[in-house]
Amino acid sequence: MLGKTAAHIFWMFRYLERCENTARLINASHFISLTQKQNIANHWDSILNVAGNKKAFLSKYGAINKSAVINFILRDKTNPSSVLSSIENARQNARIVRNNLTKELFETINETYLKLSEIFRRPINEKNLLNTLATIRTKCQLTRGTLHGTMLRDDTYIFARMGSFIERADNTSRILDMKYYVLLPSAGFVGSTVDNAQWENILRSVSAYRSYNWLNEYEFNPSGICKYLILDERLPRSLIFCNLNIYENLMSISKFYNKNFKSLNNSEKFYEEMLNLTIEKVFEEGLHEFLVRYLKNLFILATIIETDFRFYK
Amino acid sequence: MNNIDLAKLYHFDEMFDNTSKPHSCYKDYYKWLSSEEPGNLKKQQIEANEFFKKIGITFNVYGDLEEEERIIPFDIIPRIISEKKWLAISKGIEQRVKAINYFLNDIYNQQEIIKAGILPLELIKNNTSFLNEMVGFTPPGGIYTHIIGIDLVRTPNEDFVVLEDNTRTPSGVSYMIENRQTMLQIFPELFDKIKIKNVTNYPLSLLKSLKECCSINKNSKKVIAILTPGSHNSAYFEHAFLADEMGVELIEGNDLKIKDKKVCMRTTQGYKPIDIIYKRVDDDFLDPLTFNPTSILGVPGLMDVYKSGNLILANAPGSGIADDKAIYSYIPDIINFYIGEKPLLKNVKTWRCSEKTHLKYVIDNLDSLVVKEVHGSGGYGMLIGPKSTKKKIEFFKKKILQNPNKYIAQPTLELSTVPILTNKGLSSRHIDLRPFVLVSPKSIKITPGGLTRVALKDGSLVVNSSQGGGTKDTWVLEEF
Lengths: 313, 480
Fold this sequence. Notes:
- The structure holds two protein chains of two kinds.
- Chain A has helices at about 5-35, 40-50, 55-60, 65-75, 85-95, 105-120, 125-150, 155-185, 195-205, 210-215, 220-230, 240-255, 260-275, 280-285, 285-310.
- By secondary structure, chain A is mainly alpha-helical.
- The model of chain A is unreliable at about 185-195 (pLDDT under 50).
- Chain B is an alpha+beta fold.
- Chain B has 13 helices and 23 strands.
- In chain B, helix 9 links the parallel strand 11 (about 275-280) and strand 12 (about 310-315).
- In chain B, helix 2 crosses helix 5 (about 175-185).
- Chain B is globular, with a radius of gyration of 23 Å.
- Chain B starts with about 25 loop residues before the first helix and ends with a strand.
- The model of chain B is unreliable at about 1-10 (pLDDT under 50).
- Chains A and B meet through helix 1, helix 5 and helix 6 of A and helix 2, helix 8, strand 7 and strand 9 of B.
């Protein structure tokens, strides 16, 4: 397979994952803003921090308000990480390598794109917000399902999976980091009792609210929640789950190509480090400091993958 | 459903004769059509449009930023050709394609046709389509044009005549196949009733045909790739479609590098040599060392590899000289010279403005002629006299007199028509036909039918998709 093709497949699935995660984030935030009376502006402010485009928002809209933030994150084409921009990018990548995708997979992505661009032609308001978010989620899940159900299990599939897991790890750590700012403005607050609604928001945004409660009998505390999202291998959106899957996919491709790769060694070390990690150690280092370091390592791993498999040269 | 205005039938209509009865090849279809609810047909037309959109069958229009991707309009009424008629056409195409390859071989080697005084040397000299780099080099198997599209139109006396040969990179074959897939999806009952020849195996025939050109190491597995200018090219859908159907890689210039005297593509496991490239970029952009030095689409040194015999290019660079509009008028002589036969398919009468007597006739009769640029394509830069304004005709007159060598003229053809489905029912529109031909040292294969292009505007003669044309499924009946 061409290096270029691997790059397009990898990014296509990164963008799709980003669409879905952004929709989840908005979904959770919306509920929080409905149930919480104080610090509303602060809350949407932190959402903009996750997407990493607060500056662009402020220069365009001046002040933060819920409706503007939602529309900026969902459907503003000038925002490169909006859901609309992401689905356009995903579909453009798919179009370029459509000969490497099954017909069903290309058509699913194409239809997702057509459906979402149709929806996003008009502003999103409170009334149609939840329906819109549900459509984004189900369409992205349909695409993932079509990948699983129709694609040959070869290198193309592996690059699709790696793109998904790198993006997911990136998104989960950014969501955690967002709440670090909201909830833990100074290191002294670590471990103290906090506003349940805020943590609920985090759990909901990664579809982990019910499962957390089921496992922990409604025992809310930051340490337990962080442990769940960072170190629980059973949760498909936890950091360690992503690490394990990236590592396993690199193992498969090494077997497939009958060659050892730098990225395989790197991802193995990365995963082992996560295995040996305890939540106490994370708090010792500082949650924010840990997440910054994690994102940096993730970026390095993505860069090594890019070089190992000749994405660009 | 029959509301065609017979007074307007001064041209040949593919579906109805001049007593408004269907021609025999349309009999079965017409019987079905007459029994369909008009509202139902409209629904099926909408369904077809949705199908195209869903599959993403699009083309890009140059200089059109807002609406970069467009769906090519598709009409659900098929264009039908009898098997007998088709056999006659394909014999003519085969003869023409053979002659074109003989001509290319000769013109880049001995140039006997010039020595014999049949073709003037001036046509080759100073012609940008003639590549000096190809002189003295014969491609493997002696094949220059592996893939040709022959544009045919049907005149009032029912003859198919050749309007143009496309010997560089004919496009549209993906539409031909997707049109059929769409029809199969929407009208399964029709295909039960009427048996027609299959066209969807074209990509596999192309693959086979290309492999047959490899004379060396016949038994080893050949690596084939399609070279595209990239996703912004108007025909990118087709490039990706063919790569997919053929199971080959789709490459761009920046995927390629010359290594150990082979053209290699960058894969996830390093550089891998390629044996055959089906190129969909213009010759000029193939190799910046040999041709356009500013090109980023090609790969430096590719022509050296090609000429050392380590690569097959389809079509061979320089093949375009054969579809030059000035050469076109000599094709009957070319057929006669190399094959010793009369052409089975006629040309359209053509006046070459480079010749004094022709020029005078053209200038005096501009209001009834179609004038084309010798090197133009895609329907751009054309004058259609009868449909033009006085001002535009004067403007063209000046342009022609300034540079007569650049122009040819042809009579305005009354292209045949076939009905399309409009909001008001059936309405006839002008059409042409582009069959696709595959040439290898072993065989010449012609798609039964091809792509029917239709001018969607009432009375218009321009069928190009870039200028408001659409397409139809083309049926060659299975009768014998």
